[in-house]
Design brief:
The protein is an alpha/beta fold. Helix content is about 40%, strand content about 25%. Helix 1 runs parallel beside helix 2.
Amino acid sequence: MTKILRDKGKTVVIKTGKRIDTMNAGEFEKEIEPVLEEADLDLVMDCDQLTYMASSGLRIIQKSMRAVMMKKGTFKIINVSPEIYKVLSMTGFTKFMPVEQKKIVSHVE
């Protein structure tokens, strides 16, 4: 389930669900579309819950980045798992957009 969170400034965080695949990509795109129409926006896509992304998800991410950048905003992806990062890296996404991997927290006693 997608969540859209706003701060008091111009930052909007889109929290993805567990999957962006052929079955739900259209719904995901429809949910975030109103945000992409805003100008001068700092869009953060939080992928903390994301465990699977099909090519349809990659297309939506690229389209989202373009929409935000064309309206003088910024775009980045955060909390990406190693598996999703590998997909983004292999497809070249990490070369043209900021992608931050999920920080692994270990508790040492």
